[in-house]
Write a structure and sequence with these properties.
heterodimer; A: alpha+beta; 8 helices; 4 strands; globular; B: alpha+beta; three-stranded antiparallel beta sheet
Chain lengths: 167, 97
């Protein structure tokens, strides 16, 4: 299977996905939103900025809500884009596709990153597991989560390359 | 000359005022954020060149942390907020003499 990314000038079209990967893309907003509610993921998404507890208390009250809103609105944007621009049933060639509007690339990067961080925190993956290769044969929820983390990373790299071709 | 009471000026003992110590913005390593992503964030938040952003990213990656900015507290907090918005692990620390 070979994933293709084509820049039309208005959107990035990702095509060549099998049904599993297409479904994994569609779960990104949900994974991101989960991270804002589950305690282990929240700890990573909203880390304390200081050793000073006074600063941390003020941060939690005044800064954290804005950050949470930022992450959720990115997830909402991606969900909206997928509802409008995704082809999740295999076409005649047996592949699925989805479009990322170019002016929504930042929201996609944020949503995918939130999803990866949330999944990593929820499952407690080691550095070695995260640095290793993606599982090829998914037999458990944990392996599925690792596949999600790796695939979202692939999508992020593609988006970053489009956003900054010299990177 | 009129005798004037000798007034010994009250010398106020001034504490040698310390110059406001700068605050540090420190970025910490985490195994999830992509190196390319972290580099982009440094360029965006601090206006760093790609080369400088990459140097700081590699310092985070290899040494576990990098001081990416120092200065007044309010600005440091602003930068940490921006970095948290990109989900980097960042903190604000006092410099120690």
């Amino acid at each position: 299977m070979r994933i293709e990314v084509v820049n039309s000038g208005r959107t990035l079209r990702f095509s060549g996905l099998d049904r599993l990967l297409a479904q994994i893309v569609c779960t990104a907003p949900e994974m991101a939103r989960n991270g804002t509610t589950e305690p282990r993921a929240r700890k990573r998404l909203f880390p304390e900025p200081s050793r000073d507890q006074t600063i941390n208390k003020e941060w939690e009250e005044f800064i954290q809500p804005g950050l949470e809103s930022l992450f959720l609105s990115a997830a909402d944007q991606v969900a909206s884009d997928l509802a409008q621009h995704a082809v999740l049933e295999p076409d005649d060639d047996g592949v699925c596709s989805f479009d990322v509007p170019l002016d929504h690339v930042d929201a996609w990067l944020a949503c995918l990153n939130t999803a990866r961080l949330s999944l990593a925190a929820l499952h407690g993956f080691s550095d070695q597991e995260l640095a290793g290769s993606s599982p090829t044969d998914v037999k458990s929820l944990r392996e599925l989560a690792l596949l999600q983390i790796h695939f979202y990373a692939v999508l992020q790299e593609c988006l970053l390359a489009q956003a900054d071709p010299e990177a | 000359m009129t005798a004037m009471s000798q007034v010994t000026p009250k010398i106020e003992e001034r504490t040698k005022g310390r110059l406001e110590e700068p605050w540090l913005v420190v970025v910490h390593n985490d195994p999830v954020n992509l190196m390319s992503y972290v580099t982009m964030v440094f360029q965006r938040v601090f206006g760093m060149s790609r080369e400088r952003a990459r140097r700081h990213m590699l310092e985070v990656h290899n040494k576990g942390r990098s001081v990416v900015w120092s200065g007044e507290r309010e600005r440091a907090e602003f930068y940490v907020e921006q970095l948290h918005g990109y989900q980097l692990l960042a903190s604000i620390e006092r410099t120690s003499l």
